[in-house]
Amino acid sequence: MDEELRAIAWTGDTLTLIDQTVLPDRLEHLEVREVDVLVDAVRRLVVRGAPALGVAGAYGVVLAMLQAGREGWDRATLEAAVDRVREARPTAVNLAVGVDRVRPLIDAGVEAAAAEAGRVLEEDVAANRALGAHGADWILARVARRPLRILTHCNAGALATAGWGTALGVVRELHARGLVETVYVDETRPLLQGSRLTAWELAREGVPHRVQIDGAAPSTVLRGLVDVAIVGADRIAANGDTANKIGTVGVALACADAGIPFVVAAPWSTVDRATATGADIPIELRDDAEVLGRQGSRTAPAASRGFNPAFDVTPARLVDALVTESGVLEPARGRVPGA
Ligand SMILES: CSC[C@H]1O[C@H](OP(=O)(O)O)[C@H](O)[C@@H]1O
């Protein structure tokens, strides 16, 4: 494996994104200099994952400032453009957090705003490295100090963050210690972030893994084939309820029934104390076509409609560990962010 994987980078006036819609077939980059190109990239999941969206939001403010200077926007036009970035996807709280980190610096100028956005990026990489170690330590202390069989859902890796990853940050740390036997990777329909992105990250680094259909996950857990499940998060409420990719709560229910740890790995930037419970987390409803296919490749009759919530909410009582950069909370035991 060559240099560390970075999904998002800033070079002076351009945000360079790995285009995650064409992985694993092609590694291509999208260079973004305009706000509405970034908004489209967020909505199409060219860039995706809560922490990565936080960085995109932060630099989205800088892009808006630069475009305002090029095109002579007034302040209202600039603020409306920043709002479009902030509202591009509703569930991952990091997008709004990233915008709100940089927006107050609009009057301070592009250099100051870009410097703050750079801090958002580097803070996330540092947080992921730290939470990876905390998560590995917590798991090894509670499961066993031997190579482990892990299950993960969706992609919470370097591609979903500024670098290293959250759930995959814990996996990378365990792998570095020689303590990963295999990773069961849920393919994660409909957009296949697991089979396309997580498997790509693990394969390029030689981490043993097997891709499974989402529907296999509860059975794999209940058959005793998994020692621990580790997932990311898009928004964590004050009571510890956690929004993550659709299909996550099924994994958590199986883990609870099987008595194995269900671990959420996320930086504090994903915790939203202003959201009291999971019932208050906005769940993104995406296009039917992602579920049903489009003309010529439909997976259901033309008369069928789809139902495509992109996230679900796992209640805190099912979250054995919330792994952050400053340590591990245990929501299932009542140790929650808002306590
Ligand atoms: C480290 S956050 C990853 C998180 O974000 C993903 O959602 P999406 O691919 O729609 O941006 C998924 O929920 C992951 O767990």
3D structure, described in words:
The chain is an alpha/beta fold. It folds into two domains: 8-123, Four Helix Bundle (Hemerythrin (Met), subunit A); 133-333, Translation initiation factor eif-2b, domain 2 (Rossmann fold, 3-Layer(aba) Sandwich). It contains ten helices and 14 strands. The strands form three sheets. Strands 6-5-4-7-10-13-14 form a seven-stranded mixed β-sheet. Strand 13 and strand 14 form a beta hairpin. 53% of the residues are buried. The mean pLDDT is 97. The structure holds the ligand CSC[C@H]1O[C@H](OP(=O)(O)O)[C@H](O)[C@@H]1O.
State the helix count.
10
Radius of gyration: 19 Å
- CATH homologous superfamily of the largest domain? Translation initiation factor eif-2b, domain 2
Q: How many structurally independent domains?
A: 2
Tell me, what is the CATH class of the largest domain? Alpha Beta
Largest sheet: 7 strands, mixed
Family: Belongs to the EIF-2B alpha/beta/delta subunits family. MtnA subfamily.
Pathway: Amino-acid biosynthesis; L-methionine biosynthesis via salvage pathway; L-methionine from S-methyl-5-thio-alpha-D-ribose 1-phosphate: step 1/6
EC number: 5.3.1.23
Catalytic activity: 5-(methylsulfanyl)-alpha-D-ribose 1-phosphate = 5-(methylsulfanyl)-D-ribulose 1-phosphate
Task: Name the features.
Four Helix Bundle (Hemerythrin (Met), subunit A), alpha/beta, 339 residues, Rossmann fold, 10 helices, 4-stranded mixed β-sheet, 7-stranded mixed β-sheet, 14 strands, binds the ligand CSC[C@H]1O[C@H](OP(=O)(O)O)[C@H](O)[C@@H]1O
